[in-house]
Structures are given as structure tokens and as C-alpha cells.
Amino acid sequence: MIQRIKSEETQRLILVNAFTLFYKNGYRSTSIPDIVKHAGLSKGAFYHHFKSKEDLGKQTINHILRNRIYNGIIGPIKNHDSKPVITFLIDLFTNRIANFSETESRLGCPLNNLINELGCAEETFRINLRKIIEEWKTALIDLLEYGKEKGEIKKNINTTVTAMYIISAFEGARGIGKLYNDKEILQQYLFGFIAYVKQLE
């Protein structure tokens, strides 16, 4: 039991350190020696848990990145409170942007970064990254449909189109914010987002 727990802790240590380096330097610019050095482990420990860097990359997306996006935005959408849907969305995105750390503002969205870097690469990366987007989109669609049922959102609103637009605009703003290294970009996005979602009422 103790050995299994230690093995799981080592695996997670590698995943967390890999995510940190992928986020900071990019997937392609990060090597296995970089990761094991950052984690304070040996190459033997790495290959005990992962077949290759590609295997590590996929597991980092499926576990660390997916959990980060889920905890930050997908989970709150799925477990939305009793506020009107539009008010809830405005509060959610306002708080999300306000709580970005300096590192998050400077480096942008790790999901968006990996999509841009690996979206045209090996198919498995594309599938795993798409799963996160699809989970986010589905959560938004369900929320918007709930709003329609409650009479809070116009009946003629296409919730699939709206959900994808919200995600695309948010991810685009984070990428442009990184380019300018300016938090004001996200504030400008937020003003536009608020104006857009209010039109759904």
C-alpha cells in the first residue's frame, strides 16, 4: 500500500512539473531531462511511469490541464447557483479574469497555448484537447438551455453557436492579452462579453 501511494505521488510529481514547464516553455521546447531535473527525479523514475514524452504529454492534458480547466470554469458552470443565468455568467467571467495571477496573465491560457502548438500535430493530442473544449461547450449549452426554460434567455437563441462563441472569444482574448502582456485587454474583452450576453435576455 505504501509503495503504491509513493508511486502515485511520484507520477503526479512528474505530471505537475511537466505541466509547469509546458506552460512556461511550450511542449516542444521542454525535454525529458528538463522535466526530471525540475522534479528532482531520475530518468529511471520517469520511464517507470511514462513510456515517452508523448505519453506524458497526453496524460498531462487529460489529468492536470483538464482538472485545471474543470475547476476554474467547467465545474462552476455545471454547478451554477440560483442567480439568473446571465448574471451568473457575468459574475463567473468577471471573477475568473480578476483572479488571474501575474503568471497566468503573462503566459496566457495553457489550453489555448497547447491548442496553438499541438492542434495540428499528432491526432491523439487533438482528440484530448478537443475533449476539454467539448466538455466546456456542453456545460455552457446546458446552462443556456436552462436559461431558456426559465424564460431568462430568448427562445430563438442557438445555444450551440452561443457556447462556442463565448469559448472562442475568451480564449482569443487570453491569447491577445499574452501578446500585449497587458491585463487591460482582458478588461476590454469583459466589457464586450457583458454587452453580448445581455443581448441574450
UniProtKB/TrEMBL annotation:
PROSITE patterns: HTH_TETR_1 (PS01081), HTH_TETR_2 (PS50977). Residues 8-68 form the HTH tetR-type domain. Residues 31-50 bind DNA. Pfam families: TetR_C_13 (PF16925), TetR_N (PF00440). Keywords: DNA-binding, Transcription, Transcription regulation. The keyword DNA damage does not apply. GO terms for molecular function: DNA binding. This is HTH tetR-type domain-containing protein. It comes from Flavivirga aquatica.
